[in-house]
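Lecture 7, part 2: worked example. A protein chain together with magnesium ion.
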Amino acid sequence: MAKTRTKYVCQQCAHESPGYYGRCPNCGSWGTMVETVEASRPTAAAGSRSAPTRAESPSSVTRLSDISSDGEQRIPVAIDEFSRVLGGGMVPGSLVLVGGDPGIGKSTLLLQVSTLHSSLQGRVLYVSAEESPQQIKLRAERLRVIPDDLLVLGETDMGQILAHIDTVQPSMVVIDSIQTVFVPELQSAAGSVGQVRECTSRLMQFAKRSGIPVMIVGHVTKEGTIAGPRVLEHMVDAVLYLEGDRYHQYRVLRAVKNRFGSTDEVGVFEMTDGGMQEVSNPSQAFLQERSGNASGSAVAVPLEGSRPILIEVQALTTATSFGNPRRTATGFDLNRLQMLIAVLQQRVGYSLGTHDVFINVVGGLRVGEPAVDLGVIAAVGSSHAGKPVDRHTVFIGEVGLSGELRSVSQLDRRLNEAQKLGFKRAIIPSTAYRGPTDRLSGIEVVRVSTAREAIEAGFTPSGRSV
Ligand code: TYD
Ligand code: MG
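Predicted complex, written out as structure tokens:
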């Protein structure tokens, strides 16, 4: 019987202490230390400094060159966008965390993955600790697929779950969600840091021992502070986040950690009546509702993973009626927006100090790449000047503090994507490497060196020389 001990863990920074503090001694947040009961293992736990004795440790030292790389083997996933984010399929014995806000579509997506996986690889066990098996059935009916090999288990006790997995011997396990399962040895409630960590570590041991891939669902608040995925991120092999605005139909699946692949691939889905549909041409999807010649709209080309995606940035500037001007950004970093507004004020000469500025990346996508700067500048500039930006023009470039434009990576791919979608002109930094742009045909490339020139060029209709 494992001995249990009590400790206090900060929900903000996961700092642990043997005694209670009203204020976390590590990160300084108030009221975040929560009592956690955790089973202490006699064996060397992760992070333990005590060296294991020879009897406990059957490990051996191996030459790197002697290790075979069979680990590369992957189980195909029938949903391409999902497979892409995982790095080209599921790795046997991997533990993957799928996080996201409540209601974003995690259960729907994993039910779809399970369904397809069971028809290709055999039995999948979907453990629903949150919803009843009847609710899962209703969801599956909405998805219009009821496969024979999809087994559902409504259980919250981790011991029972593992026992069932042993009997069923599935090809994949889904735990929905990690915040609702518990181990009875711990006195803390399901969802507490201790429970979440213990349940995950048991699943990890199971996955590694059996070679069966396990997907776990984790809820996260906007700040990621609840005893959820943040404490798990260190423990699992891959962390995927399903993002998007629940009031918009698009969802982006993004890898923030992946021990078996790159972390900069994204999968784009659309939430429909019949579940999550893959969006294989995201640029077209994000631009489809673009209106005619309104001011305050510009198209930028961020790179999501290895894929360029065209997005519409909308901006609205209005005179501040009271107090400090407001700046609001949806889908874009607010600090970056503040910086770009300062550039517009100081380097371009727009008097935005007395104006509220709102920007929105259409479609619910979040973009963080500096290459979008120029699109944001063009949208804000256009709204402030009350002049529409040419509809067939895209903006690519990073903006520096002195209003100068900087080159961005993989320019040719971005330009190709713009050209594919029918754009006639691209405004890019003059410093950009000439090689790729010289070979392009069908899209006019305008090189400018400052934010001011870029905005002016954007107002000129394409087809007319600037
Ligand atoms: P869900 O997968 O339950 O979200 P999560 O597990 O992340 O909490 O999905 C939540 C929303 O998705 C819910 O509001 C209903 C909607 N939905 C659809 O629009 N179409 C569908 O086919 C399904 C199954 C759900
Ligand atoms: Mg759910």
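The first strand starts at residue 3 and ends at 10. The longest helix spans residues 193-210. Keep this in mind for problem set question 3.
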